């Protein structure tokens, strides 16, 4: 039986099985042993299978031993069929994969393109070699014809070669410079914005401060030279400058000073220790940067840097807005002075010779810098009356001041419209009249001087006309109602007034009035040390309180502290001048 099985196994052709190209496509999940695919069999194979099936039947009739053998042969045949079907499926799957890879890679097309490129390269190399060979053949043939009488064609070729060599020499000599003048579109580079970082913000502020340090030192030395901080240095500088200006050497002097400054900087960069300054430099302590910061420290760091940046940007904005308003005739009486001065300078430059004009400008600049500015700095009243540049600059308004003025004018118009019925009538209830400026000062409870029982001359300063919202923490009191009070804080010329929001109309028992001369100590205060920042309170100590009173929860704490402290120092200075013994 095994011999017949071998004969059946190896006798059949591969063509008798299912043609893989004609077979339907099957997925990977279908290629398993559970799928049964019946191959096409030939007539010979069917006859052999029938013989194989008949022989077991005869063997069964022969006896039980032959029947078991026939069963074994049938199982072997089924296993062979299963393996054969699996092999055919694997072959079909691999052929499909190979076909897909060929379609994706396109190896044949790439080979063809590569061959074309090789042919083109070979052709180009041949053309270049032919051109070089022809040029080498032409050059020796033309050189011996030069001394002899050339023909018309030979002379033309010689001229062409001379022109070519000349153009080639010019291109080799100046071609690089000509290429620099080629017009190209400008490349737009967009800088990427860095993410917000407390460490980076602090470092940038320190870099800005270090960058401004030479400018600030230079301006400080000029101010010291003008104010005669060192009498000998200022006197020598004045004499030298006036001598130079008298001889017309001002511009050479400034150029020489610039060269001298660069020479000193070169020596300092080489390691020399050269320090020359009219005003001694104050070295600020540099705090080493901390690596590990807590959340509170980072928040405090950001607040400090943001405050410095706010003040710096505010000063720069004020300067730019004043210059803009000066040229835009916002204050005509101030711009008119500049206008007349420019006309005088123009007429002088047209009529006077430049040598005389330079002499006049140099002498006036020296006298103004060394003498007039010193007198004006020493006598502020003279400066406020006669220093024209100072008057123009201080009286120039910023855009913020113009906005406040427009709001004030609008409020005046509203008040004037309300009191148009009776011109001689008294001010309305809760309003205090300012006779000098025509303004009304009032609080929520009534007229300002009536609420705090003060003279009518006492009125809030300009910086606190509406007051600062805050809460008064009186640490001498024990009851909660007296310990903390919400209200508004005002400062006048002689008093510090706190209006409690819980006080009844007409009653001033819960209001607080502190005389500025009675203040013994005023400091910035931080109510809760747990919170980040420098605090939002002001502590004020007086002889009548055991513990300093605290005005906390104040949004504009720094502005209020500056106004109160400035007015306090002004009052103390005036009192000291009147009574030196106290």
Automatic annotation (TrEMBL):
Keywords: Membrane, Transmembrane, Transmembrane helix. Residues 41-71, 132-157 are annotated as: Disordered. The lineage of its organism: Eukaryota, Metazoa, Chordata, Craniata, Vertebrata. InterPro entries: GRAM, GRAMDC4, GRAMDC4_PH-GRAM, PH-like_dom_sf. Residues 139-153 have a biased composition (Low complexity). Residues 42-53 have a biased composition (Basic and acidic residues). This is GRAM domain containing 4. The keyword Transmembrane helix applies. Residues 446-526 form the GRAM domain. SMART domains: GRAM (SM00568). Pfam families: GRAM. It comes from the Eukaryota. It comes from Oreochromis niloticus (Nile tilapia). The keyword Mitochondrion does not apply. The chain crosses the membrane at residues 222-243, 249-268. GO terms for biological process: apoptotic process; negative regulation of toll-like receptor 9 signaling pathway.
């Amino acid at each position: 039986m095994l011999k017949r099985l071998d004969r059946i196994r190896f006798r059949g052709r591969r063509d008798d099985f299912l043609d893989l190209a004609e077979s339907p496509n099957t997925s990977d999940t279908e290629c398993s042993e559970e799928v049964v695919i019946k191959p096409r069999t030939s007539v010979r194979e069917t006859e052999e299978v029938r013989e194989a099936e008949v022989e077991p039947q005869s063997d069964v009739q022969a006896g039980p031993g032959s029947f078991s053998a026939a069963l074994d042969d049938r199982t072997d045949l089924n296993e062979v069929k299963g393996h054969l079907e699996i092999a055919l499926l694997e072959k079909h799957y691999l052929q499909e994969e190979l076909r897909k890879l060929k379609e994706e890679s396109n190896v044949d097309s790439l080979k063809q393109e590569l061959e074309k490129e090789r042919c083109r390269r070979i052709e180009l190399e041949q053309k270049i070699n032919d051109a070089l060979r022809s040029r080498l053949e032409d050059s020796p043939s033309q050189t011996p014809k030069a001394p002899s009488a050339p023909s018309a064609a030979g002379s033309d070729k010689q001229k062409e070669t001379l022109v070519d060599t000349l153009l080639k020499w010019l291109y080799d000599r100046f071609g690089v410079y000509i290429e620099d003048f080629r017009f190209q579109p400008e490349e737009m580079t967009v800088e990427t914005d860095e993410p917000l970082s407390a460490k980076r913000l602090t470092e940038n502020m320190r870099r800005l401060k270090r960058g401004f340090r030479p400018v600030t030192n230079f301006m400080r030395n000029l101010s010291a030279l003008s104010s005669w901080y060192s009498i000998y240095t200022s006197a020598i500088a004045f004499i030298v400058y006036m001598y130079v200006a008298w001889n017309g050497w001002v511009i050479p002097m400034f150029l020489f000073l610039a060269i001298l400054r660069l020479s000193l900087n070169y020596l300092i960069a080489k390691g020399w220790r050269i320090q020359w300054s009219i005003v001694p430099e104050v070295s600020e302590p540099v705090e080493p940067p901390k690596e590990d910061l807590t959340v509170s420290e980072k928040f405090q760091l950001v607040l400090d840097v943001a405050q410095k940046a706010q003040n710096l940007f505010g000063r720069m904005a004020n300067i730019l807005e004043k210059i803009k308003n000066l040229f835009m005739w916002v204050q005509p009486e101030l711009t008119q002075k500049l206008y007349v001065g420019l006309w005088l300078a123009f007429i002088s430059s047209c009529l006077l010779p430049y040598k005389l004009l330079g002499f006049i400008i140099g002498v006036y600049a020296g006298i103004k810098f060394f003498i007039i500015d010193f007198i004006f700095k020493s006598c502020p009243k003279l400066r406020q009356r006669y220093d024209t540049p100072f008057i123009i600059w201080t009286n120039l308004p910023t855009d913020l001041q113009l906005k406040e003025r427009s709001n004030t004018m609008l409020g005046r118009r509203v008040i004037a419209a309300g009191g148009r019925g009776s011109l001689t009538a008294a001010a309305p209830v809760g309003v205090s009249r300012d006779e000098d400026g025509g303004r009304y000062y009032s609080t929520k409870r009534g007229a300002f001087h009536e609420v705090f029982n003060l003279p009518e001359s006492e009125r809030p300063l300009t910086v606190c006309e509406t007051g600062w919202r805050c809460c008064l923490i009186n640490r001498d009191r024990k009851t909660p109602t007296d310990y903390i009070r919400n209200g508004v804080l005002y400062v006048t010329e002689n008093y510090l007034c706190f209006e409690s929001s819980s006080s009844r109309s007409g009653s001033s028992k819960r209001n607080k009035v502190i005389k500025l001369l009675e203040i013994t100590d005023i400091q910035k205060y931080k109510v809760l040390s747990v919170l980040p920042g420098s605090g939002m309170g002001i502590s004020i100590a007086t002889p009548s309180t055991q513990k300093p009173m605290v005005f906390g929860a104040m949004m504009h704490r720094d502005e209020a502290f500056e106004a109160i402290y400035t007015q306090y120092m002004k009052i103390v200075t005036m009192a000291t001048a009147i009574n030196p013994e106290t």
